[in-house]
């Protein structure tokens, strides 16, 4: 299995998708009613598709997954660029921090980060912070699910939570952050993994259950993928192998 998609629920997929395509310099894949997809290929690292799917209701709960963006020594210039693309500044109670919190055109939070050694070779998205009820447990779950590997904590930045990264050592970090409150509603953003050829979806489902996840029963119709909750209740979809 491998991590393939970052999926964003959107009232207007074209509006949000084109914004994020410009932010990350993505390659447009799909522009159809109800869906917009753009591809981020990290040189020598992972290929991640950002998929924007239409939903009928605006978000009501705090986001448990968001995108951290490269800022570094050009943080102020990058903030100005995103504001020019349609972002706005956002106060989520962050206080005095070295990063800048923004919202995309539909209010999804994102952060433009300061310079950190851990972000070298990350590309335009430096981290995918995900809320977790038990970060060490969930780091093991997501490492097995994606094939991403543990990386050393960035002590210089005061980082104490576990983080994973593509085996190439490039691309964003998947950071497991201690949740401030339990999950109460569907995540606005979630991750998709895809099976490799020959992997049995029933065996994968059994392994997910053994590791604390569970099948998510939905009324979304007959879909080619299966939906799950990770051990902390975050949604994840397992897509069939290509071909």
Please give a structural write-up:
This protein is α+β, with helices and mostly antiparallel strands and 243 residues long. 19% of the residues lie in helices and 33% in strands. It has helices at 13-24, 75-85, 135-146, 201-210; strands spanning 2-10, 27-32, 35-41, 47-54, 67-69, 88-89, 100-103, 109-112, 125-132, 149-151, 163-165, 173-178, 189-194, 214-215, 226-229, 235-239. The strands form 2 sheets. An 8-stranded mixed beta sheet has the order 2-3-4-1-13-16-15-14, covered by helices on one side. An 8-stranded mixed beta sheet has the order 6-7-8-5-9-12-11-10. Strand 3 and strand 4 (47-54) form a beta hairpin. The longest helix has 12 residues, at 13-24. The radius of gyration is 17 Å and the shape is globular. The model has no long low-confidence stretch (mean pLDDT 94).
Which outline best applies?
globular
| Series of secondary-structure elements, N-terminal to C-terminal | EHEEEEHEEEEHEEEEHEEE
Indicate the proportion of strand residues: 25-35%
User: How many strands?
Assistant: 16
Number of H/I helices: 4
Largest sheet: 8 strands, mixed
Provide the residue-averaged pLDDT.
Answer: 94
User: Over all CA atoms, what is the radius of gyration?
Assistant: 17 Å
- What fraction, in percent, of the residue positions are helical? 10-25%
**Sequence of strands across the biggest β-sheet:** 2-3-4-1-13-16-15-14
Summing up helix and strand content along with how strands pair, one would put the structural category as alpha+beta
Distance between the termini: 15 Å
**Segments where pLDDT lies below 50 for 5+ residues?**
none
